Every structure is written in structure tokens, then in C-alpha cells.
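Contributing new records

If you add data, match the layout below exactly. Sequence lines come first and carry their own label; structure lines follow with theirs. Keep one chain per record. Anything else will be rejected by the validation script.
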Amino acid sequence: MRVKPDKQGSSLRLPKRTLAQLDELVRRGRFKNHQAAVAAAVERLYAEEHHHLTARQETFTRLCGALQLGTNRESLHIAELDRLDWEGGQR
């Protein structure tokens, strides 16, 4: 079924099964209309995706912090020179 574009110019082409599910949600009083049901679904999907992305970014940041401990290119270079000096003194 094709839904006519609204004022914002969006339109949807929904499978019959999805439309039947939307009808049932509206009929049960869960949502005022199809638009409210679709909007709620999109908000939920967006929140889940945003949460997933945020969790991945936080995990990555924690891992980088645990591994780097404030390390930058210059400090790595200095640490490498210190290591080479130490190894040279061990021989």
C-alpha cells in the first residue's frame, strides 16, 4: 500500500503484513493512528542504534585509555629511546 506524501513530502510503501500490524496496533488503542505507530517505531530503533553506537564508542575510548595511558607520538619516541639506552646498558 502506498501512503500519500504529507506536508514534509515523505511517503511510504509498506508491505501488506506491516500494514495489517499497524491496523491492529491502532485498533487495540495502542497508537492513535498509523503515523504515531511508525514514529514510535522509528524513535525506538534510533534510540537502540544510538545506545549501541554510544556503548561501542565508550568501550573503544576506555580501551584506548587503558592502552595508551596518555601516550602520544612524542612520548612514544622518548620511551623508545629510553628502551634502547637501557638495552644498550644491559650488554
